[in-house]
Amino acid sequence: MATLEIRDLHVSVDVENGTKEILKGVDLTVKQGETHAIMGPNGSGKSTLAYSIAGHPKYTITSGTVTLDGEDVLEMSVDERARAGMFLAMQYPVEVPGVSVSNFLRTSATALRGEAPKLRTWVKEVKSAMEQLQMDPTFAERNVNEGFSGGEKKRHEILQMELMKPKIAILDETDSGLDVDALRQVSDGVNRVRGTGEVGTLLITHYTRILRYIKPDFVHVFSAGRIVESGGPELADQLEAEGYEKYTKGGAAA
Ligand SMILES: Nc1ncnc2c1ncn2[C@@H]1O[C@H](COP(=O)(O)OP(=O)(O)O)[C@@H](O)[C@H]1O
Ligand SMILES: [Mg+2]
């Protein structure tokens, strides 16, 4: 079983007059088959964690390690990260003008598998994944993220996740901007992939809403650039009832 290990991760960004440390020692282990929720107030550094693992050039790792089965993820190119089995869905996905969803998915699958998937089985695979997400077939011909609604962006992410079959998936604010129906379809998709037992999921979210549909095995509270508390699903219920105040007032609780 694949294991993602984050050890004492410190990350800074360049700001006008120097650098600012955003992540201040993150420790986390995610194993294939497990679902972890990272919850925390806005600005606590959750997206920074996702971007740092994805290799976004804006974020400088000043110390610490991220490994997948002992292999240094931070040394890998973005393509190598994908080939190693990492899937990263960002809070603000980019447009890819002139590239259709269908071509994008096939190119990604080719890069991942080392050879182009057989057209006949591939078309079937895509069609059935799209049907399960209740996506209109014409969606495949649209350009990636161009004019996509919030719900379409998120569905497209989950479609990618279903087709790419990653070992570790990091989903940042997958619930944001979704109405109840879209939230359910997206959650069903995540649960289908989870049901295979082959993916370790890091679900990053500000709101507890999505955790009614996707039940995490572990919940971590993120505050001021670190994990300040970890527990089981009951921790999410506690956060829903009490909010984050306890963690943000007068410094973070250990
Ligand atoms: N590229 C950046 N440049 C400057 N500041 C940043 C950048 N990215 C994040 N930050 C700052 O780091 C902090 C954490 O942001 P973020 O990781 O987006 O938090 P969250 O996802 O938990 O809301 C915020 O104060 C934010 O303004
Ligand atoms: Mg964020």
From TrEMBL:
InterPro entries, from UniProt? AAA+_ATPase (IPR003593), ABC_transporter-like_ATP-bd (IPR003439), FeS-cluster_ATPase_SufC (IPR010230), P-loop_NTPase (IPR027417)
Q: Which CDD domains match?
A: ABC_FeS_Assembly (cd03217)
> Could you tell me which PANTHER family the record lists for this protein?
ABC TRANSPORTER I FAMILY MEMBER 6, CHLOROPLASTIC
What's this protein's family per the entry? Belongs to the ABC transporter superfamily. Ycf16 family.
PROSITE patterns assigned to the protein according to its UniProt record, in alphabetical order: ABC_TRANSPORTER_2 (PS50893)
Q: Report the protein name in the record.
A: Fe-S cluster assembly ATP-binding protein
Q: Does the keyword Protease apply?
A: no
List GO molecular-function terms, semicolon-separated. Answer: ATP binding; ATP hydrolysis activity
* Annotated ranges, domain ABC transporter: 4-249
Q: Which NCBIfam families match?
A: sufC
Does the keyword Ion transport belong to this entry? no
Keywords (A to Z) from UniProt: ATP-binding, Nucleotide-binding
The lineage is: Bacteria, Bacillati, Actinomycetota, Actinomycetes, Kitasatosporales
